Amino acid sequence: MRSYVYILSNKKEGVLYIGVTSNLIKRIYEHKQGFVDGFSKKYNTKDLVYYETFDDIENAILREKKLKNWHRQWKLNLINDFNPSWIDLYNSLL
User: Fold this and answer.
1) GIY-YIG domain spans which residues (predicted)?
2) Conformational region of residue 10, where left means phi above 0, alpha means psi within -120 to 50, and beta covers everything else
3) What secondary structure, in 3-state letters, does the chain show?
């Protein structure tokens, strides 16, 4: 089953939210609509700025845990290399 690790932000180099899902389009839609209570809703992290694809959920979960333990600057560097303009990638998935 295809799975994803994703990073949302509220603005360039702003608050970061890291999550994992098996349905990236649906999950990002839920974040954008405010259906997901908690950190993401509280800090308005609705822009998909980074994602990775995996063949199974176990590897995606391991990667999510690893990214959550990274220093903030490493996360910013990862996003800047993948998406230098910090554009919302959600529409490119549709």
Assistant:
1) 1-78
2) alpha
3) CCEEEEEEECCCCCCEEEEEECCHHHHHHHHHCCCCCCHHHHCCCCEEEEEEEECCHHHHHHHHHHHHCCCHHHHHHHHHHHCCCCCCCHHHHC
User: What are the domain boundaries of the chain?
Assistant: 3-93
pTM: 0.97
State the pLDDT confidence band at 36, using cuts at 50, 70 and 90.
Answer: confident
Q: Which CATH number fits domain 3-93: 3.40.30, 2.20.28, 3.40.1440, 3.30.70?
A: 3.40.1440
Q: How far apart are the first and last CA of the chain?
A: 19
Q: 19 near 8, Cβ under 8 Å?
A: yes
- The answer to whether residues 82 and 53 touch, using CB atoms and an 8 Å cutoff, is no
